[in-house]
Amino acid sequence: MTEDMTTRRRGGLPADDPASSSHETYDFARIQARWLPVWQRMDAFRADRLAAASRDAAGAEDPRERRYVLDMFPYPSGDLHMGHGEAYAFGDLLARYWFQRGYNVLHPIGWDGFGLPAENAAIRNSTHPAEWTYANIETQAESFKRYGASFDWRRRMRTCDPEYYRWTQWLFLRFYERGLAYRKASAVNWCPRDQTVLANEQVTGGNCERCGTTVTKRELTQWYFKITDYAQRLLDDLEPLEATWPERVLAMQRNWIGRSEGVSVDFVVDGREAPVTVFTTRPDTLFGATFFVVAADAPLAQEICAPEQRAALDAYLEQVRRSTEVERLSAEREKTGVFLGVHAVNPVNGRRIPAYAADYVLADYGTGAIMAVPGQDQRDWDFAAAHQLPIIRTVRPPDDFDGEAYGGDGPAINSANDEFSLDGLPVEEAKARIVAWLETKGLGAGTVTFRLRDWLVSRQRYWGCPIPIVHCGSCGEVAVPDDQLPIELPDLRGADLAPQGVSPLATASGWVDVDCPTCGGPARRDTDTMDTFVDSSWYYMRYTSPGYTEGPFDPEALRRWMPVDQYVGGVEHAILHLLYSRFFTKVLYDMGAVEFTEPFRALLNQGQVINEGKAMSKSLGNGVDLSEQLAIYGVDAVRLTMVFAGPPGDDIDWADVSPGGQLRFLQRAWRLAGDVTSEPDADPTGGDPMLRRVTHRTIGEVTDLVEAFKFNVAVARLMELANAVRR
Fold this sequence. Notes:
4-stranded parallel beta sheet; 24 helices
């Protein structure tokens, strides 16, 4: 270790630094040791801290204007890392700013305690998940205190506490009563390593977002939340957030919800009494539908397949199940399929078109079937070319077009029957004409669809919130009565919690076997646990009254504090967590439990802390330890480095920043505070008028810059003020 590094670890500066000549050095280690305990004893950042003193004799509430600043709560995977250092520096900055402006500020902290990472880590270390999780929570809590975070520690909360997940179960039952929680059998995403199902949003590039394993498909009966009932409201309510949420987050939400306007068209299929309905956004191309495609893993494929083709379909289905959704949707992938031995009838011209099972159509898209229009869709073109099927263009491409499928605008061609013609019409006019004809004939109807799918919440793992349903042979699904909540996890200490394809809870016979709450007969608890995103979809409401025992939150406390004024967290949660939280809020609004429809008024995303242009990784050898940086440079210098590095949404490359430079600035500011002083109650008009003007201008500019999240520029203005004072 160099002499310079040794000096910094002691909290001082090298002897040749100009700032060290001050009669009193900025000794951050001594300052932190002295003042952190004082701040903790004072409980200086407690919400409603002045409430008792400011209430009148009638007990009126604190009259100060309130602000609720919220950081996305951490997962207790270990001690705080550099990413935590950045994220909580921004939230802390805003909370302190509002505190100093005289607001009554709520800035709480808690932990997202359940989930796969803790369970997997506990299994690897032969430790119970609860022991692992609670130990990490205590480690992080102490690190947060050393980091000087301005939290209201009285509201500390953990989602894995029975006192919390009692109300997660209570909310599940309210969803169940409203038909928003239901169980069904379907093909689901399956992680072979974690041995559990995954929601679509938890599959990234065909891999499990938690462990990176390639995801496969399984047919299972699972619990879902009916988020699709709220698709249009989730989309519409993004508009008021446009001024206060990042544009890219709004775009990601809109794309995930995926509203499409088109038409549902009925196709008669050989041997099936009811027609098969398909959705298309381009009904004007119906005359170009030359074959019919069903997802190989959709139940419809098995239903309509001719007996002589069933063996071929089964063999093909095995092949398809070895592919991920990403692979199946790849434009470069060879288009494979198998003829189902039946035909469908194109409703606009009566032509019989062959029906195929293929992998490039997904089972959860509509009915799992599409009309294939190779002249206007490249994937259909590739399939038609591979299987020698007809290709008919229904839109005239430009004269200079030399590609294959053409999906752009142009006049309709080859689009007429004995009753009407679309030829020559532009796309939008052709759409309107054919939809009107289909509706008149009873063959179709204008339809709106969404990409959004219902939220799969079942997990076949131990460390999660138990689902409060029992299964009775006589009564079927039975909700656990509210007065029996929480359904606590059995200890299972010493049991094998390794993933086995079914929840380890299934082996806990003393916990699983219960009496039916309805008939008293033998029944079994549901052994799946809930997706941890259920816990995090409402935690911000619990912070307003964490000790409340009559419900998930005190309605009066919620009225005072919600919605959250400023939410701070990573953009990686732009779809999953934010969408689910918005959904929960709307359901609670419909229940009459809350008075607002959006949980977060404003959103601030921070970037990542990287090193040498890459994400920090032990394997790359570029990791930077937060605790070591704090020991070398001190809390204030590290936090100032995070804030000064650039706009909050940009990544911070630790190789390009200078915590040492920020430490030197703090030393200069410390010296100035000691050298430039005056007696209490001194007349401010006797000072330097130029400095007074610079000071007031800086106050105004910094206020505006902080409000605009331009924290790095605000720091620059303070540095300029320090230079002005020195001059």
